[in-house]
Specification:
Distance between the termini: 15 Å
Subcellular location: Cytoplasm
Largest sheet: 5 strands, parallel
Structural class: alpha/beta
CATH superfamily: P-loop containing nucleotide triphosphate hydrolases
Pathway: Metabolic intermediate biosynthesis; chorismate biosynthesis; chorismate from D-erythrose 4-phosphate and phosphoenolpyruvate: step 5/7
Number of domains: 1
CATH class: Alpha Beta
Subunit structure: Monomer.
Strand content: 5-15%
Strand order of the largest sheet: 2-3-1-4-5
Number of helices: 8
Radius of gyration: 15 Å
Function: Catalyzes the specific phosphorylation of the 3-hydroxyl group of shikimic acid using ATP as a cosubstrate.
EC number: 2.7.1.71
Order of helices and strands: EHEHHHEHEHHEH
């Protein structure tokens, strides 16, 4: 049986996916606070586990090594209580990791246009974004959008919306 919280939202985990810069971490903190749940940022979990930034991991071992560590973090995540999880933008490359997430909660794809994302990402080359060498942001987005849509239970269009408006859309969709 699924427990319903005081806001009427089902007390199950919520997993946020989307491109770097869309606001997964920011909205994840707001959603976790609103729902009274633990918040987990898998990018931070990776960095803590490895003792390096995402970019340092890629510089030393390549982007596929970063994706491997990301999959391990996704598979090791424990869902003893419901939580809000902000995944790294490349989490959707791990079918096993996404299956684990979907077993324990609903996947919310936070969507934003390429132009809006470009306005937010000023350090594409140094941000630790798991991508093939020389891959453009546009090409990366084209590749990932299909995967985000594949795994999403809910899609939230964040275009020209404040974090508070996106939060409300998520709360409404999760009821």
């Amino acid at each position: 049986m699924v427990e319903v919280g005081t806001l009427g939202v089902q007390k199950q985990s919520v997993v946020l996916v989307g491109m770097p810069g869309v606001g997964k971490s920011t909205l994840g903190v707001l959603l976790a606070k609103e729902l009274g749940m633990e918040f987990v940022d898998t990018d931070l979990s990776i960095q803590t586990r490895e003792g390096q930034t995402l970019q340092e991991i890629m510089d030393a071992n390549g982007y596929l090594a970063l994706r491997d560590v990301e999959q391990q973090v996704l598979l090791e995540l424990k869902f003893l209580t419901p939580k809000v999880v902000a995944t790294g933008g490349s989490a959707v490359y791990s079918e096993l990791g996404m299956e684990n997430m979907r077993k324990h909660g609903r996947v919310v794809y936070l969507s934003l246009s390429l132009d809006a994302l470009r306005g937010r990402i000023h350090n594409y080359e140094e941000r630790g974004i798991a991508r093939a060498p020389g891959q453009s942001f546009e090409s990366l987005m084209e590749e990932r959008v299909e995967l985000y849509s594949k795994y999403a239970d809910i899609t939230i269009d964040c275009e020209q919306k404040t974090p508070q408006q996106c939060l409300q859309l998520m709360l409404d969709a999760l009821v």
